[in-house]
Fold this protein.
Amino acid sequence: MSVNFGSKRIAVGAHYGLRDWLAQRVTATLMALFTLVVLAQIIFSKGPIGYDKWSGIFSSQWMKVLTFTVIIALLMHVWVGMRDIWMDYIKPVQLRLPLQVFTMVWMVACAGWGIQVLWRL
């Protein structure tokens, strides 16, 4: 004889959980720290800020690696946020799936452009 004590909860929607919440917080913190690093370099630089100054800020290897890491963090942050928006507010799957695919393609294109700009300096 089988006894069923309650039912299993099926979580649908925007992948509720600690992993997504933590990913948003960690990536946001990383992007905020990166912003402070860039602002500090701008504030403590001498002279007018032009292309040469910006190029100088991002020309060192450690800054390129840090910027690349922030681009990846930004992609993760955007993906979790947009996926949650699409899953919470767009109920028809035939509309939600193309929006998610478009978001992924757009993110990869933006990341490619950002990385190309970063490594071309």
